[in-house]
């Protein structure tokens, strides 16, 4: 059996262990990142939607950084949005601050009814830099 090469961002390992999942796994030159939400240090949701989206991207960037990646290495994005008809435009107004320049990664947006108290979640797949050998 292969051992999972788990990536933990600084300071949040206890949160992931409590919830029993890995923030990211390196495999075959790729980084598979679990869905990131706009959670505060204690894991609770940031109540303001725009601030929650920004915090989700900051949490994502911390995971990417722990794997020596940036958002520029991201090739595929999936976002989950509660009530997308109401929230999409407000959420998408934040994206340019984190997305970078074209060419952009692929994206799939999924409307959902529940995200454990959150309104937005983002999960990505990134290509690991060539200097990372896994």
From TrEMBL:
CDD domains named in the record: YjgH_like (cd02198)
GO CC annotations, alphabetized: cytosol
A molecular function GO annotation: deaminase activity
InterPro entries named in the record: RutC-like_sf, YjgF/YER057c/UK114, YjgH-like
Name of the featured protein: RidA family protein
């Amino acid at each position: 059996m292969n051992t999972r090469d788990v990536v933990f961002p600084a300071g949040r390992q206890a949160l992931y262990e409590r919830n029993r999942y890995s923030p990211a796994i390196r495999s075959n030159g790729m980084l598979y990142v679990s869905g990131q939400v706009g959670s505060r240090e204690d894991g609770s949701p940031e109540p303001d939607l725009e601030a929650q989206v920004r915090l989700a991207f900051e949490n994502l960037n911390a995971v990417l950084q722990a794997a020596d990646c940036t958002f520029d290495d991201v090739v595929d994005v999936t976002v989950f949005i509660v009530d997308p008809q109401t929230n999409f435009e407000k959420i998408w107004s934040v994206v340019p601050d984190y997305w970078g320049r074209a060419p952009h990664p692929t994206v799939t947006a999924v409307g959902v009814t529940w995200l454990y108290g959150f309104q937005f979640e983002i999960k990505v797949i990134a290509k690991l830099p060539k200097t990372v050998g896994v």
